[in-house]
Amino acid sequence: MSLREVRLDKHFSHQSQDSGSSLACFESLCQPTALHLEKTLAKMLDVLIIGGGPHALTLATLLSNPEQPLCQSSADILQGIQLSKSKAKSVRYKNKKRQPTKPVFDTGNEAKRLPCPPLHFKIVDSYGKWTSLWESQFTALNIPHLRSHTLVHTDPFNKKALQDFVLEQNRQDELYCLPEKMYIQDENAFFNDNRLGKKEKKLLSTTNGLQKNLYFSLPGTQLSIDFFQEQVRKNDLDSVLIRATVDRIIPVLTEDDSKVKFFKVALHTGENLEAKRVIMATGPSRAQMANIPCWVRAIQESYPEESLQHTVQLMHYFCTHEEMGGPSSGSPPVCQMGQRVMVVGGGLTSAHIISAALKQGACHVTWVLRKHLQLKQFDVGDIESLIGRYSHVEHGIKMDGLAYLKQFYNERSLHKRLVMIKQARKGGAVTPEAYAQLQPFIQSGQLLIRAHCQVTEAKWCYRSQRWRVSLCIGEQWDGEKIWLATGCKLDVTQDPLLSDVMTKFPIQVSK
């Protein structure tokens, strides 16, 4: 699960690249606006957030506490955690004194800042509940814990907030510790994680055992949901949440059409909201965002909807069932007993789908991957290359030891930034622990991996009620169920919610 935001403000002077942009634009939201609206617009919102996921929760927490300092200094962000050998390899740093780390945000001029009045903001979510899709996905895919560790959470003011919550609630037993060592010798798997793949690297470690378990442990899913709800309660964020679905975002322009005065947001209820700024925090959660392969669109036969599905549908399974009064627990039917299943895609969700299918009695599963099967603990493969502890060459690009993230934020080209993001992520990958659960089925022959392989054609047979699929390696597959774990794509040029905005203000988009 990574979420993106598109920020639409009245000047269109900024574009958010990722969830961190919520922090970057917060100060600008607090500055006095130069636009004086008529008395009839006195109830206009300063900010409207679309979506009630974790990124929206972080931003709403910021907006509800405008006077609270955003961040401490970066010097102790990884306090007690050793990311590499203490000795520097490069001689050019040998005789240089280490400079004290400056704060991420300059607090020297804190007193000079103008006071920030309370902001009038609302959040619109289709299900009217914070992080409901996350909770639904956890349940649907039987996900035991998050992929990210306890330093990654939704509280923008306290980096140890999740750790403090664990200790206060005495719920240390809901933390999943990362393994000290992981050995997987398998012809199918390729480690794309230098922390696990290079012997000379020190494993992430701390001096204190309890700290170690807290810092680099993975929080259980129910623990995470309870942490979200506690944050909602502390900041009274249920009071600003509206249950509705946004149909359109319409920019209302000045008389000369040069600027946006405000945005009119049309809800499915027929109600209209007006806001000076709109932030889309929907993430890849809508069915129209699903990344559908071209061979699916080329299928000419009619086929049962349940025989070919995308995993994005599972995100909404329990939310929609709750609305209809159905059960909100247990696992949704991924397949039927005795069926042959094909799963297309190489990310962590594909591994979850395969596990669910095997548990529900699939007689055989074929796993089709466009590339090799990558194993990574986190979404990014090489932690040290991002933080910048050493010089090295990666994919033919020399990394000079400067922090990769620093290079990213100094880069002004959106196209180059996108390239850097893709280089850091290196495509979808499966965690070692998720893959280890699948190994017995691989060894027994119940799970067959087809790497460097793509589907070229799929046909539905009415008589046998089965799929007949052709693979690029010349093989044929027959089965009853196909799951697409091909992810979702965020494309502002294709998003129906942004069609009015893009018509009025066409912009260049890097893809």
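Above is the first protein from milestone M3; the second protein from the same milestone is given next.
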Amino acid sequence: MTRKPSRKIITFDWAIKTVLRDKANFDVLEGFLTALFRRPIVILDLLESEGNRSSENAKYNRVDLLAKTEDNERIIVEVQYLSEMDYWRRLAYGAAKTIVENLGLGEPYARVKKVYSVSLLYFDISSDGDDYIYHGKTEFTGLHTHNPITLKKSLVGDEIRVGETNVFPEYYLIPLKCFPDAVQDELDQWVYAFKNNEVLDEFTAPGIDALKEKLDYLKLDERERRMFDKHLDYFRSEWGMVESAKREVEDARKEGLEEGRKEGRKEGRE
């Protein structure tokens, strides 16, 4: 099979640190989120995010941005390379913290913002790996009927978003390693680009041309290219250390099993 022409792009985490914070480049993020949410997303501004206040080590492993949309929602977009203990709790904390920090002191609950958390992950999160995009949200159903609740309009208080449970955070987890590189729709075009750091010329998803042009590796000047290459070298080194540690643990486990079998055979002969 002949490989289609493509354009090499910088990694998305580096784009978050650099070009995507420029208002002129919001169209890249808008294109991706529009494909993911399956509705038009317009970004008005980028706000201070959790990652911007984290330690230096956390910044290298995880980078994020917080977008304010035309509908006054908040969308956390993060890229994380290495797994961490209590990942799920950290994810829940990040969404809850964003809700709290975006409600002013003394403001009514009606001003609580809808928060979405979108994670591009370079590690496995599922033991079976049967998908590459996972969506989580809070739903209320009858304990006996199992039917979803239809809330009274007086309790909803927010007619902007679709669905009565709109006030609760929603999560999108995208473990890129699980994507099989089989592009079926516009969202797959984005996932392919993030996983492989390239955009095929055949891609036509809204915003994908902006991704191709504005994240073009060849358009980096010499200083930017050195910084980006150094960034990649750091992660290759970190990844190597993690994989080495995993192998050492596995080797120790195998040695322990072998020693146990030897002891068992020895005791059996005595």
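Note on the second protein: Confidence is low (pLDDT under 50) at residues 52-58.
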